Amino acid sequence: MRIENRSGHPNWRRLKIAWLFDDISSGTTPSSTNEEYYKDGEIPWVNTGDLTDGKLSSVNKKITRKAIADYPALKVHPKNSLIVALYGATIGKLAITQFDVTTNQACCVLNQPRNINIDFVFYWFLANREGIIQRSVGGGQKNISQGIIRSLRIDVPSLTVQNRIINFLDQKTSEIDTLISDKEKLIALLEEKRQAIITETVTKGLNPDVKMKDSGVEWIGEIPEHWEISSLNLHLKESKTKNIGNKEKNVLSLSYGRIKRRNIKNNFGLLPESFETYRVVKNGDIVLRLTDLQNDKRSLRVGLVKEKGIITSAYLTLVPNQNILSEYASLLLHAYDLKKVFYGFGSGVRQSIGFQELKKLPILLPSKEEQYDICIYLKNFTENIDETLIQLKEQITKLKEYRQSLIYEAVTGKIDIQEMLKETEQEEVSSS
Q1: Where would I find the Type I restriction modification DNA specificity domain in this sequence (predicted)?
Q2: Is there a shared CATH topology between the 1-157 domain and the 158-208+369-432 domain?
């Protein structure tokens, strides 16, 4: 979405951002090795990671008055300042401060407005973010400098109209945000239920009346009496087949617990000089990403391969034998992953697990028939949950798109706010 050139309203004036604020500036970063600049700090110091496209209610770091004294670039900006992220992953993110702050060099602060409501400017930046980012410069890291922000032109209505627009958008965006929040909470509950059912089913079975026995493993607890329990290496072996000669071209990756085809043409992420070092995997193999355990305790680390291809040798590939179904073994290891079992096995600087550490992992073994029944039950259950999750996520996407469109049309004068407010009042009267 490009920045709108004209509002179409004869009473709206087109003005540069530089003309609308007496102070547009950035900050800097005090030396992180000097404890005097941070210990017992009392002045909020904003990083772009603190910006959440709303009111700034908290920050991650505070600095001391000595830092302010030693770094002239550090200004203390008053409450109700607008902050814009200039570069990095958060480029274009916004916040309006609710207390006095100072910032680092990646933030641009606009304050001391002249005949303009800061909330109107906030909504304008939000509506035109994509167009502003398109003006960025730089190669690897996009940068929307202070100069770019100062040069932006904004159509400004009277303060009365600005306030009317702000009140309208505050109400409407709050309603939309509540709907989005409710759907996100439902998604979290469904995902939690999904995980709980998978874990319960692969460790307890489908029969609630079956006689149980102690598994001897604290984090597994009781299991059906007729189930066997033995070591992983008795039922799954490691596969190390290399892609010699680059014969296989189907590059796969593990993402959020699913094995997917990787589009290497878009060059997203690091690519090797040759894919000969990659491992060949086939339908039914199980892939585990058991590296960097100390840094990431949220990722799903187990995936079931459903097509022949190649995957990085940094991952562990397991091949089930005739005693255990691939789908069941994958679900069981997935349940272990949800219980965060793998994090207790890691060692070394990267806290990685190899087959030697994993081979004594306890494996629960129902009969093949029961394994099959468990897989069918969980397939049907998870498909229903996943379908609902997809629908909810699509609804959230549409709500966010509607929110963005509403803001854009309001701050560019595309919709008559007064007329919409009348329609809303009439709807409320009709429904009461």
Answers
A1: 24-178, 302-397
A2: no
What distance in Å separates the CA atoms of residue 331 and residue 372, rounded to the nearest whole number?
12
Instruction: Categorize the per-residue pLDDT at 270 as very low, low, confident or very high, splitting at 50, 70 and 90.
Output: low
Q: What is the pLDDT of residues 69-128, one digit of tens each?
A: 999 999 999 999 999 999 988 999 999 999 999 999 999 999 999 999 999 999 999 999
Q: What Å distances lie between residue 144 and 24, 243, 430, CA to CA?
A: 14, 44, 47
Output the average pLDDT for the chain.
90
Sketch the domain layout of the chain as residue ranges: 1-157, 158-208+369-432, 228-365
Helix or strand holding residue 431 (H, E): helix 417-431
Q: Which residues of 168-177 are buried (b: 16+ CB within 10 A; e: fewer)?
A: bbeebbeebe
Q: Are 260 and 309 in contact (CB under 8 A)?
A: no
Question: Which overall architecture, per CATH, does domain 158-208+369-432 show?
Answer: Orthogonal Bundle (1.10)
Q: Is 208 exposed, middle or buried (0-12, 13-18, 19+ CB in 10 A)?
A: exposed
Question: The whole model's pTM is what?
Answer: 0.80
Angle between helices 368-411 and 326-338 (to 10 degrees): 60
DSSP calls for 200-243: HHHHH-S-TTS-EEE-S-TTT-EEETT-EEEEGGGTEEE---B-
CB 91 within 8 A of CB 145: no
Top-level CATH class of 1-157?
alpha beta
Sheet with 102-103, strands from edge to edge, namely: 61-63, 43-46, 102-103
The pLDDT confidence band at residue 19, using thresholds 50, 70 and 90, is: very high
> At 113, is the secondary structure helix, strand, or coil?
strand
CA 385, distance to chain mean position in Å, is 21
Helices (H), 103-158: 118-127, 129-133, 146-151
Which residue, among 30, 31, 35, has the nearest Cα to 45 in the 3D structure?
30
Is residue 251 within 8 Å of 297, Cβ to Cβ?
A: no
Residue type, 275: F
Rounded CA-CA distance 404/399 in Å is 9
State the fold for domain 228-365: Adenine-n6-DNA-methyltransferase TaqI; Chain A, domain 2 (3.90.220)
